[in-house]
Amino acid sequence: MARKPDPSPAATRAKPQNIQELARIAGVSSATVSRALAGTGNLSVQTRERVRALAEELGFRPSSMARNLRTGRTGAIGVVVPLGHERTQHISDPFFMTLLGHIADNVTERGYDLLLTRVVPNDPAWLDAIVDAGRVDGVIVVGQSDQAEVLDQVAQRYAPMVVWGARIEGHHYTTVGSDNRLGGRIGAEHLLARGCRKLAFFGDPRVPEVEQRLHGFRDAIRSAGPGHVGALLPVHFVPELALTTISDYLAIAEGIDGIFAASDTIAMMTIQALADQGRAVPDDVKVIGFDDLDIARHTLPPLSSVRQDLAAGAGALVDALMRRLAGAPAEAISLQPTVTERASTSAG
Question: Stretch 46-70: mean pLDDT, rounded?
């Protein structure tokens, strides 16, 4: 037989500290309170509404920790940015901020919280520590950096993980990213079509995505035939370091008339370095970036860029992770890049 509810006015009652105390006040079992607040189980509409009304009246909110223990879920998604190749880079980088913003929108729309972690790997077990901590239900890794082997090892035992970046043959984790080799090729072809013959690629090929862009760049140079040259300058993603490296190179390089930058940030530093040396863009040197971020429209001159659809990519990342969380397979997704032409490659 159910206990009679406490007849004292709500105003005189202390706020319940747990489900057990609310059950005592409501005159029902703890299980009934739990089912009523969670919207589960076979309860009468009257009982469910009475318990919920009482909880609202007394300002009671069930403990998320207790709920997590019952459901085995945390309600949070981890978003991890590993920076093994570029330890001084920050997530305030425009690329990271753009992609992370889209991911956050998609995660919260699914009813999850987001836990963001920037990792400078000093221990090969850094990802094991994250997935084993029990703080998140799944993980989105933004960029592989130089940590592909670490990601692969964890993916073989931890299913709810999706990675933004290039697909690497033989690796077990699910990737979502642009066709970087195609992006490199069409970016170089854009420069070649505008009369460039001595091209340079600025970027760090230790990063899988940049390495694939470089392969595409070289594909285009080879297809262009004799008389076309494509040089490589390894360049940091950190703007200040990139500017120094690019300035030193341009001071000694002769005849460069087209530059493919592996990111819009590197392209911006390239335009600045050229301006510092009195070389005009696009009249003396044409410059194209990669990503087509909002900042590309505001450089001087506005920057041509290989566009990857980061909004669509973020949606695909979260969709793939939700499938993983549901126990379903999720295939790798390759987005098709396009070229956005602006004044940095066209005098018109």
Answer: 74
309 phi-psi bin (left φ>0, alpha ψ -120 to 50, beta other)? beta
Contact 246, 275 (CB under 8 A): no
**Cα–Cα distance list, 199 to 196, 244, 252, 254 (Å):** 7, 19, 15, 11
| Per-residue pLDDT reduced to its tens digit, 102-141 | 999 999 999 999 999 999 988 999 999 999 988 999 999 9
Query: b or e along 174-192 (b: 16 or more beta carbons within 10 Å of the residue's beta carbon)?
Result: bbbbbbbbbbbbbbbbbbb
Nearest CA among 277, 254, 98, 282 for reference residue 190 = 282
Alpha carbons 146 and 9: distance in angstroms, whole number? 63
One DSSP character per residue, 105-130 reads HHHHHTT-EEEEEEE--SSTTHHHHH
Q: 307 near 288, Cβ under 8 Å?
A: no
- Compute, in degrees rounded to 10, the torsion defined by CA atoms 289, 291, 292, 296: -50
The Cβ of residue 337 has, within 10 Å, a number of other Cβ atoms equal to: 26
H/E run at residue 288: strand 286-291
Q: Identify whether the C-beta of residue 85 lies closer than 8 Å to the C-beta of residue 262.
A: no
Alpha carbon distance 206, 210 (integer Å): 7
- Compute how many other C-beta atoms are within 10 angstroms of the C-beta atom of residue 49: 12
Domains with residue ranges and CATH for the chain: 10-70 (1.10.260.40), 76-179+310-337 (3.40.50.2300), 180-307 (3.40.50.2300)
Check pLDDT > 80 for residue 169. Answer: yes
3-class SS letters over 169-214: CCCCCEEEEECHHHHHHHHHHHHHHCCCCEEEEECCCCCHHHHHHH
Predicted confidence (pLDDT) at residue 41 exceeds the cutoff of 90: no
Q: At what angle do helices 264-276 and 239-252 cross, to 10 degrees?
A: 50
135 vs 73, higher pLDDT = 135
pLDDT for the residue 7 = 46
Query: How many Cα atoms are found within 13 Å in the side-chain-facing hemisphere of 187?
Result: 43
